[in-house]
Amino acid sequence: MLIYDVGMHNGDDTEYYLLKGAAVVGIEANPALLPELRRRFAGDISAHRLTLVDKAVGSEEKPVPFYVDPGKARQSSMVRNRAGFSEIEVQSVRLSSLMQVYGLPAFAKIDVESMDGAVLDDLDRSGMVPPHLSVEVHTFEIFFRLYAMGFTQFRLINCRRVRELFKNHPVSTLDGTVVPHDFPHHSSGPFGDDLPQPWQTLEQVCAQWISRESLSGRGWYDVHATSRRT
Known about the structure:
Elements: E1 2-6, H1 12-20, E2 23-27, H2 34-40, H3 42-46, E3 50-53, E4 56-57, E5 63-68, E6 76-77, E7 86-93, H4 95-102, E8 107-110, H5 116-126, E9 132-137, H6 141-148, E10 153-158, H7 162-165, E11 169-172, E12 178-181, H8 202-210, H9 212-216, E13 221-226
Parallel strand pairs: 1-2, 1-8, 2-3, 4-7, 8-9
Antiparallel strand pairs: 5-6, 5-7, 9-13, 10-13, 11-12
């Protein structure tokens, strides 16, 4: 199984994917995070279980402005949407180009701080669409965009509650074993068969989005989408 972690941050999601036994392509543009990622996953990189790509993912392939919070170096974005961020330059690449090099994944987690729509547009135009992905939700538009790409089943997850909901959570590995795993705060949490929530139709997930705070509380939300019948 091949998984893409698009926006690795500190690598907690990559650790989970590697625990499952997957090969991972991890992508992180923030230069402040890269040394620790290389140290944390040195063995997996050496063993070719993890390919670390130190670039931004966007709609173009060229050097682009990148904005980092000087006080909290882990906060960054390709979009200058917060006051006080410092501007640096990083290399941008299309996610479809990486998939042409490393292969189409079974699952892709996409968390690229306000560039998610551009990344989905690139995948749609190129035809490089994984059968299963997750992406952060900010507006209704994302559900209809995913539906237009061929995704028909959805799950909405409050990522603020991941550590609470998925503590000592059973994780199915590719060799058939089940191991417990604590999902840390700010990780994206489980996916696929590790995620117990039922799949929903477009209409159902839109209704859940409208009532998300009363149903699941305040927080930031990811939508999981699949094109496979469940």
